[in-house]
Design a protein that fits this description.
This protein is of the alpha+beta class and 736 residues long. The protein contains 26 helices and 18 strands.
Length: 736
C-alpha cells in the first residue's frame, strides 16, 4: 500500500477537529475497540465531566468497569511498529481525538490506522513515523478481554494469597539476585578476619593486611549499595502486594448483596475482613518476605559453614531442626486457641461498632450501664482467650530458648574445645569466621521454623476473611446484562418471594402492570410486602420466581449497575456522607454541576433551607448529619435521587419521618417530580396518595386491588378500613 503523506491522514479524518467533536471521536474509538471484544460501554460509567478530554487513565477505568482489561501506556515508535496487533489498539491524538491501530509492519516501518468514523469495509490508512509524530505523542490504550476474571472470582484462600505473591516474581527475582550477592559479600569479612588472625598476626604481614583492608572496604561499599537497592525493591513489592490485596478485598465487599449486610453485624464483618486482612498483609509484606530472603542467605552460607567445619555446621542444623520440631508439635493446639481468641475479639469488636453506630439511641435511652456491662463481658472473654493462647505459646518458646542459646554460644564452646585439644583441627581464625557466619545462618533457620507458626495464624485469618469474601456476589459478572434506555413501564407477573428462614412468602403470586409515566401508590398493613416489592424492583433481592420487568425486559437480564443508576430511590432513613451539601446531592456523579444540584434541590423543596444557610450549598455536613433536622436530611435525599433525572423514582416511606410542614412541601412538589417519569410511592399515609394515578393495595403478600383512590373507596374493603382508621376525625366532623 502506498504510504501517501499527511494529506491522506487529514482526508481520512486524522486528525479530527478539536473541541467537542474530537472528544466524541475519542469516545467512539474506545467504544469501537470495546465492541470488538463484545462489550458495550455506558457513558455514565466514564467519570469525566462533559466537555472535558478524557485522560488515558479515565478511559482505562471506563473499560475496566465494563469487564475488559485495559492499560494506558506511552509507546515509542519502535515499540509501536513491533506490536503484534491481534486486537485494536487505540492511539490518543494530541487534539483530543483518537484512531485505532489495526496493523503494524515492522519491515516497512509503518502502521495501519482506522478512524472510528470509518466502516469495517473502508480501507485503513497507512502512516509512517514522520506522518504520525506531529499528531501523536505516544499515548495509547491497550485493550483485551479480561483473562484474569476467573482469578478475581476465585475463592479467597491460601492458594489465592500465594498466587498474589507469585505475581511479583519478576521483582522477587531481582531481590533474590541482590540477596545472593549480599550473602556472598558477607563471607568476605569473615574470611578476612580468619586470614588476619591466622596469617597476618602470625606472620606479621603488612601487605596482606592492606589487601584485606582493601577487600573489606570494597565489600562494605558494595554491600551498602546492594542493601539499599534490595530494601527499595522489597518496599515496592510490599506496596504492590498491599495495594492489590486491599483493592481486591474492597471490590469483593462491594459486590456482596445488601441482604448479607442486613443479616450480619457490621462489627463482625469488619473484624473478619479489615482486622484479618491486616494480619495477612503484615505477614505477606513483612515476615514472609524477610524469611524468604533469609533463606537465600542460608542456601549460600551453609556450604561455606560445612567447608569451614562440618561438625559444627551439623550442630547448628540439628538445633534448628529441633526448634522446627517443637513448633510443629505445638502448631495444632496453638491454632485452636488462636481461633478462640480471634472469635472473642470479633465479638468484642461487634459490640464496639454497634454501640458507636447506635450511640444516639444509647444516650437517649440511658443505655450506658447495659452497654458497659456487655463490653466488660466481651473484654473478659477476649482477655481469657488471649491469656490461654499466650500461655500455650510460652511453652514452645521456653523450649526453644536454650536451643537458640546453644546455636549462638554453645557451638562456640564446642569449637573452642576442638581448637585447644590435640585431636582438634579447628584454627582460631577459622572458629571466629565460623561463628560470624553461623550467626547469619542461625537466624533464618529459627525464622523458618517460626514461619510455620505464622502460617498457621495466617491460615486462620484467611479462613475468617473467606467466610465473608467467598459469599455469593450480587452478580457473577459486573459487565453482563443489557443497558436499555428506560421508558418506565413496570410489570410483575406471578412473582413469589420468601425471605430466608421465613415460614410464609413475603410476596405471593404478585401480578400487576403500569404504563410509563404512571404515579403508583403502594399501601397495606405492616408486613404486607410493600418494601419487598421495591427491593425486587431495585434488584436487591433476586431469588424469586416469576418475572419482574421494566419496559418488557426482565430485570435479571439488565446490567445491575445500569438498572440502579436509572432508578431514584429515597428510603425512610437515608445516609448522608460527610462533605458539602452540593457533594451529597451530586453524589459523585460525573458531568453534573451546581446548577443541577440547585434544580434538584428546588424540585425536592430543599432549596429554601439550603439558601438560608451561611455557606449555602458549600455547607459541610458532619458525620451522622447532626447539624441537619430529619426533614432537611430527607429533602436532601430526595434531591440526590432526582439530580440525575431518573426515569423511575421510588419513594419508600420517604415522607413518614417528616414533620407536617416538610411533608406538605414535598407532597406539593410531587406533581413536578412525577413529570416525565414513573413514580412508585410506598406510604402508610393514604392522604398523601389520593392524587396518584393508581394505588396498589397489598395484604399478606398478595394484591387485593389496584386503581384510583375514588374507585378503591367504593370497592376495596381493606382500603376503606385503612382510610377510615386514618381519617376518623374527618369522618366524625362530617357526621356532626
Amino acid at each position: 500500500m502506498d504510504t501517501g503523506n499527511l494529506e491522506q491522514l487529514e482526508q481520512a479524518g486524522i486528525p479530527a477537529p478539536g473541541g467537542e467533536l474530537a472528544i466524541r471521536i475519542r469516545l467512539m474509538a474506545i467504544a469501537a475497540a470495546a465492541r470488538f471484544h463484545g462489550a458495550e460501554l455506558d457513558r455514565s460509567d466514564l467519570r469525566v465531566p462533559a466537555g472535558e478530554i478524557p485522560s488515558p487513565a479515565a478511559l482505562s477505568d471506563w473499560l475496566r468497569s465494563s469487564g475488559l482489561w485495559a492499560k494506558a501506556v506511552r509507546l515509542p515508535w519502535k515499540q509501536l511498529v513491533a506490536l503484534d496487533v491481534t486486537t485494536p489498539v487505540v492511539l490518543l491524538l494530541k487534539d483530543g481525538s483518537a484512531v485505532m491501530l489495526v496493523a503494524a509492519d515492522r519491515k516497512r516501518d509503518l502502521v495501519l490506522l482506522r478512524h472510528s468514523r470509518l466502516g469495517p469495509n473502508d480501507p485503513p490508512v497507512a502512516a509512517t513515523e514522520a506522518m504520525l509524530s506531529p499528531l501523536w505523542n505516544g499515548e495509547a490504550v491497550l485493550i483485551r478481554a479480561r483473562r484474569s476474571a476467573a482469578r478475581e472470582d476465585a475463592p479467597f484462600n491460601m492458594a489465592w494469597v500465594a498466587d498474589l505473591v507469585w505475581q511479583e516474581r519478576r521483582l522477587m527475582r531481582d531481590v533474590g539476585i541482590a540477596s545472593v550477592v549480599l550473602s556472598l559479600l558477607t563471607v568476605i569479612p569473615a574470611l578476612t578476619v580468619m586470614t588476619v588472625i591466622d596469617e597476618v598476626v602470625t606472620h606479621q604481614s603488612i601487605s596482606t593486611l592492606i589487601l584485606m583492608a582493601l577487600l573489606i572496604g570494597i565489600a562494605l561499599l558494595s554491600e551498602t549499595a546492594l542493601g539499599f537497592a534490595r530494601r527499595q525493591l522489597i518496599l515496592i513489592v510490599g506496596a504492590r502486594v498491599d495495594a492489590k490485596l486491599n483493592l481486591h478485598v474492597f471490590e469483593r465487599l462491594l459486590r456482596l448483596p445488601l441482604d448479607y449486610f442486613e443479616r450480619n453485624q457490621a462489627g463482625t464483618v469488619w473484624s473478619n475482613t479489615g482486622l484479618q486482612i491486616a494480619k495477612i498483609r503484615e505477614f505477606l509484606t513483612g515476615k514472609l518476605l524477610t524469611t524468604m530472603l533469609d533463606l537465600v542467605t542460608l542456601i549460600v552460607l551453609l556450604p561455606i559453614l560445612f567447608y569451614l567445619q562440618p561438625l559444627l555446621a551439623l550442630l547448628v542444623l540439628a538445633s534448628a531442626g529441633a526448634i522446627a520440631g517443637i513448633i510443629v508439635v505445638f502448631m495444632q493446639p496453638m491454632s485452636s486457641r488462636a481461633k478462640r481468641f480471634i472469635n472473642a475479639e470479633t465479638a468484642k469488636s461487634s459490640i464496639m461498632v454497634e454501640t458507636l453506630h447506635g450511640i444516639r439511641t444509647v444516650k437517649t435511652l440511658a443505655l450506658e450501664p447495659q452497654q458497659r456491662a456487655l463490653w466488660d463481658e466481651r473484654v473478659a472473654e477476649a482477655t481469657k482467650a488471649k491469656l490461654a493462647a499466650g500461655s500455650l505459646a510460652n511453652l514452645p518458646q521456653m523450649l526453644i530458648t536454650p536451643l537458640e542459646g546453644f546455636m549462638q554460644r554453645g557451638v562456640l564452646l564446642v569449637g573452642a574445645y576442638m581448637a585447644i585439644t590435640d585431636s582438634g583441627t579447628v584454627a582460631v581464625g577459622a572458629l571466629i569466621a565460623f561463628m560470624m557466619l553461623s550467626g547469619r545462618v542461625a537466624q533464618p533457620l529459627a525464622g523458618l521454623a517460626r514461619l510455620m507458626e505464622d502460617i498457621t495464624q495466617v491460615r486462620t485469618a484467611t479462613t475468617l476473611a473467606a467466610s465473608v469474601l467467598n459469599q455469593r456476589p450480587e452478580t457473577a459478572d459486573t459487565a453482563s446484562g443489557v443497558r436499555p434506555q428506560f421508558q418506565g413501564g413496570i410489570a410483575f407477573r406471578n412473582v413469589v418471594y420468601s425471605y430466608p428462614g421465613a415460614a410464609n412468602p413475603a410476596l405471593d403470586r404478585i401480578g400487576f402492570g403500569i404504563a410509563p409515566g404512571t404515579v403508583l401508590g403502594v399501601v397495606g398493613r405492616s408486613g404486607s410486602g410493600k418494601s419487598t416489592l421495591t427491593r425486587l424492583l431495585q434488584g436487591i433481592s433476586r431469588d424469586y420466581t416469576g418475572q419482574v420487568s421494566i419496559d418488557g425486559i426482565d430485570i435479571k437480564d439488565i446490567n445491575l449497575a445500569h438498572l440502579r443508576r436509572n432508578l431514584g430511590v429515597v428510603l425512610q432513613e437515608n445516609f448522608l456522607f460527610r462533605g458539602t451539601i452540593r457533594d451529597n446531592i451530586l453524589a459523585g456523579r460525573p458531568g453534573l454541576t451546581l446548577t443541577d444540584a440547585v434544580r434538584a434541590a428546588r424540585l425536592a423543596g430543599a432549596a429554601e433551607f439550603i439558601e438560608r444557610l451561611p455557606n449555602g450549598y458549600e455547607t459541610i455536613i458532619e458525620e451522622g448529619s447532626p447539624n441537619l433536622s430529619g426533614g432537611q436530611r430527607q429533602r436532601l435525599a430526595i434531591a440526590r435521587a432526582l439530580v440525575h433525572d431518573p426515569r423511575i423514582l421510588i419513594l419508600d416511606e420517604a415522607t413518614s419521618a417528616l414533620d407536617p410542614e416538610s411533608e406538605a412541601l414535598v407532597n406539593a412538589n410531587l406533581a413536578h417530580m412525577a413529570k416525565g417519569r414513573t413514580m412508585v410511592i410506598v406510604s402508610h399515609r393514604l392522604s398523601s396518595l389520593t392524587e396518584c394515578d393508581a394505588i396498589l393495595v397489598l395484604d399478606q403478600g398478595r394484591v387485593l386491588d389496584i386503581g384510583p383512590h375514588a374507585d378503591l373507596l367504593t370497592r376495596c374493603g381493606t382500603y376503606q378500613q385503612l382510610w377510615h382508621q386514618q381519617n376518623r376525625h374527618l369522618i366524625a366532623n362530617q357526621g356532626v
